Fold these 3 entries.
Entry 1:
Amino acid sequence: MAGDTYPCYSEKKDNSGHWYWIYYASNGEAIARSSESYTTTSKK
């Protein structure tokens, strides 16, 4: 995730086309992932 400022989160699509998020700590390490996937993204 070049150019990102940490901490931050990223939204991605899974294989079924649903969205999930990953939260990254200040050192860039992924520390949390959503336990559910969603049909829409929060980004506009």
Entry 2:
Amino acid sequence: MGVKKTGLGAGLVNCPGGKVEPGETPAEAVARELEEETSMTVAVADLTPAADVVFRFPDVPEWDDLRLHFFTATTFAGEPRETDEIAVDWIPEAGIPYDLMWDDTRLWLPDVLAGEFVVMDVDYAGRDKVAEYTRVPPRAS
């Protein structure tokens, strides 16, 4: 995790991530973005789907709805290195700074870290407060 330096969420603590490029799966995008933003590498086969979250910002018309795919991994190579995008470092689970993250994070990340796959829809009020959310049962594979 680290402090995002640019783009949506700049100034907040966040996980590395980005957009899925044409022809990529979400897992391939995660592996690519992790390397680009942290210099760490992970094999796509070592990624475990962890959450599928849709974010809506009805009060911010210039922001599109977002669907984010989150993954976990326990096998990787390298150590986190700060880039132009994010100032990353290891953060112990007990020290996750939820008060410095997107408001929704506290609603799903603890369950992901406990091993649950989370599917959620989140509507924001303005740019920084959750107005409402719905946890939905995971889709059958």
Entry 3:
Amino acid sequence: MESQYTLLLLQKIIDAQAAPLPGLTRRDVWLPAVPGKALAVIGMRRAGKTSFLWQLLADRHAQGTPREGLLYISFEDERLAGMQASDLDALVEAYYRRHPEWRDQRHCTFFLDEIQTVPGWEPFARRLLDTENIELFLSGSSAKLLSREVATSMRGRALEATVTPFSFREALRHAGREPGKPPGHLTKGEQSQLDHDLGAYLQHGGFAEAQGLDTRSRSELLRSYVDGVLLRDVMERHNLSQPQVLRWLVQQLLGNAAGAFSINKFHADLRSRGVPVAKDTLHQMLAHLEDAFLLHSVALATDSIRRQQVNPRKVYPVDTGLIALFDRSGKPNTGHALEVAVLHTLLRSGAQVGYVLTPAGCEVDFHAALPSGEQWLVQVCLDLGDSATLQREVHALQDARQQWPQARCLLVAQQVPPTVALPPGIELHRASHWLLEGRP
């Protein structure tokens, strides 16, 4: 018996395979390479997951796979409303009806976007992997299923690739100003332009739709992104009964980007204002915000779980452009924005990241444990022109190195004097170069 969606799905297949490949800014997203696994493309709303699926499709086409072997289908189509898992077989049958020579004979690739809109899709996806000669990519985000949960719902049959707002290099590429040579080979004029572009990136952020907008339009756009996350990914999904508390929490977290945050102190502040809320509820709200990719919290770098639990966490927004929306000081928060950008560069490299607080009371912004086993201590600074600032940052790295003697000590600064005297073992990196290269 044919599904009521068969003809519509067949038309969507015809349209998708006839559509020209979109010209999109190329993303530098790491992909796990494990045969037999689906790949779940995850990330915050509007970060570019759908665009990345099209990039993957275009890559396979450029590598020699004809368009008939590549299928992109978005289930975010009102004509597919009410579709059930039992109707998903109609997609496979419609595809092979159109391309019978591909069944069992050739390896095709399906890109299923917003798949979570179909209830019970998970067994269908697992069966595709088991019974058809199909490579499978999945993506989606909704109040029903966060993008992070697409992979976990596959019960070990899918791995994740995380799409974030543009990195600094990707933002330059989008603007047509990505350097065609190593940063150390730039002329003085090119270096000045690069530093100017970094300042703009730290202020405006990396969401694709926000690039090139005026300040008011960009603020309204980014605010709509945050509101969408709060309403659909947190309030609706978890049926929160105290939405105002959630908004106060977000204001506190994003209004103090790169700052320390304690649930206990925030809970005490709410109680002093007569707001009844359970401490566990606040912990859950913070976890929900992280699950929705709106922010990332960094714990103390230590092997002691207890020390991690009793010390505050440092909280960073998903994008530097969000800082201005919530910072009430009215001043450019460039130093914290740079710290946010450095953190996300470390996370993109696959590092496990914590912050350092030494027994002597010195703080280092990040301890990063890389997949290679290498360890970095990273101190971020806006301007090293002041000798006292330089001495303080270097001293913190030297103190932290006593705990991690094998770690490389990196000092990443936006403004670097022409000559800087550093003790042995301290590496100085210009921020525009370090962010552009993704690592030293």
